[in-house]
Amino acid sequence: MDTERLLKYFDQNTDMKHWGVVLVILILMTGVYALVYQTGGIKFVYSHSMYIPILLSGLVFGSAGGIIFGLIGGIILGPFMPIDVETGESQESINWLYRTGFFALIGFFSGVASDAARSYVKKLQWISFHDRSTGLPNRSALIDAIKKLSLQKNSADLSHLLIAVSLENKIELKAALGFGVIEEAFVQLAKRFTDQDKSNQIFYTDTAQLVILTRIHHRKAEDFLHEISNISKEPILYNDIPIHIDTRMGYVIFDRISEEPEVYLRKAEAALTVAYQQELDSVPYTSDILSCTKENLSILGELKGALSEGQLSLYYQPKIVIATGEVHGVEALIRWHHPVRGEILPDVFISRAEQSTLIDLLTEFSLEQAIDQIKRWQEKGISMPVSVNISPKNLVKPGFSKMVLRHLNHYGISSNMLELEITERGLMLDIERTIEELNQLVGAQLIISIDDFGTGYSSLQYLHRLPVSLIKIDQSFILKLPNDKGAANIVEAAVTLAHKMGIKVLAEGVENQQIYDYLAKIGCDQAQGFLFSRPIPAEEFERWWIAYKRRPTQVSSM
Ligand code: C2E
Ligand code: CA
Ligand code: CA
């Protein structure tokens, strides 16, 4: 029997109508009296049958009940019961008093045994519905609470709200202060949430996750979440030291219970994952979140196999020197040729891979392929520098620059043929560590460029410290040129600033001649975009390049 069924069994037993049991015991005792009397009196063995109702009373009513019914049983078989019915000889008082005392003792022991069993069962019940270290109700208790919601009467303008709360800085906290701090944080948070409103039910559903289950007015959900978010950001006290905590929340609102209770929890947890990914305070569950999470997992699951099975390859897109129209080099862009899904663009899988360690394998793959391609071209007499996209996470990983140099060395390629593109957002992940790693790479003659320039927020203040040769202005600005004044101002300012610092500028997303002419006018150095070529496989690029070199005049007449 599993614990849950065992508990139910005991629950039902203690729920039995006590008066019914009293009646049963009394009937049994009367039955024993009749049996003893009918069989000739107390001197025969049948008086021992009295143990049955006495043991039963102890079992049901505990030690006190056992003693009382022991005494009653003793009296029933006492002064009113002759030793021998036939002769009518009555018992000596000491006889029946001794027996009565003995019965009471038996009742008491049966009660003690049953009390112990009862408290053990209670303990089991507590354990199966609580987290032992925090003492908070656990996942099973939550599932139970959701099940019970379906029994509640539904009010038209009240909804159920289930919020999964986790600590954003849990890894840092655990590393600095041990796991105890996480538990303490959740205990203190749980107290705050119940203090906020006594009707909030709090559960500790995971090693580092609280769940709040409450009922709210439809229109008040936002305010409620805001309040919860605010009170959870107050520092906690750990060993009398205030500790800063940051929380993330995923939540789901529902009116009726139409699915299994676990589903609601899963939805809130899926929304919580998105809150983590997008660094948001709280995220509501929407129907696409769960399917997205599933797809995420299946894509990541397949990606590793895809790498080893050769489903991934690099395409190349030329970068043009605006002043001369020459091809300055190519950017390597990864493509996944999926046997079932067809061509998958990097936007679909790169960001997912970045959330796992797969990004390391992926970047190393791109680097090695690109270096291999440089070598193949060199063998054909083509000197074509290749730039490779690097994820921010790669750069802060120890040994990254060594890995890059090892591959270059292995293929016998000089470092200045390889350019690394790092997104502006990525630089901010750990700026000091990044600068250190970039300096090592530049020291080894590699070329570094900042990708998607203009989409980050704060790299301008670091630009002078970064050993970069080129900034690539994000296509979101370039595509609006030349008519959008705001975009034009930003691009012009970026060109001026970069030139002042001795850094070259490339415009991404050059789709038409008008944009190209404008870029030439403001002195932008390089251009990349569909106007020249889409990203294409290496052999196709070779053919494109031959044709491009034979073009009658410069790009302006293409
Ligand atoms: P990105 O580095 O900004 O690459 C430029 C993207 O713009 C490419 O998309 C390219 O196909 C597209 N593009 C080029 N010219 C034009 C144009 O004229 N108009 C428009 N609308 N788009 C243009 P793609 O190949 O889908 O790559 C998307 C992103 O995926 C890249 O953005 C880059 O951040 C990332 N990525 C690609 N390959 C790799 C890789 O090997 N490793 C890593 N870590 N990231 C990669
Ligand atoms: Ca790029
Ligand atoms: Ca870019």
Structure characterization notes:
By secondary structure, the protein is of the alpha/beta class. The protein folds into three domains: 3-129, no CATH class; 139-285, Reverse transcriptase/Diguanylate cyclase domain (Alpha-Beta Plaits); 295-553, EAL domain (TIM Barrel), CATH 3.20.20.450. It is 53% helix and 18% strand. It has 21 helices and 18 strands. The protein has helices at residues 3-14, 18-38, 51-76, 93-129, 139-149, 170-177, 179-196, 221-232, 261-277, 287-308, 346-354, 358-379, 392-395, 400-411, 424-427, 431-443, 460-463, 475-478, 485-500, 513-522, 538-549; strands spanning 82-84, 89-90, 158-167, 201-206, 209-217, 236-238, 241-243, 247-254, 282-284, 312-321, 327-338, 342-344, 386-390, 418-423, 447-453, 470-473, 504-508, 526-528. Helix 2 (18-38) packs across helix 3 (51-76) and helix 6 (170-177) packs across helix 7 (179-196). It is elongated, with a radius of gyration of 39 Å. The protein starts with a helix and ends in a 9-residue tail after the last helix. The structure holds ligand C2E and calcium ion (2 copies). Residues 317, 333-334, 345-347, 350, 363, 366, 389-391, 421, 451-452, 475, 508-511, 528-530, 535 line the site of ligand C2E. Residues 451-452, 472, 474, 508 line the site of one calcium ion.
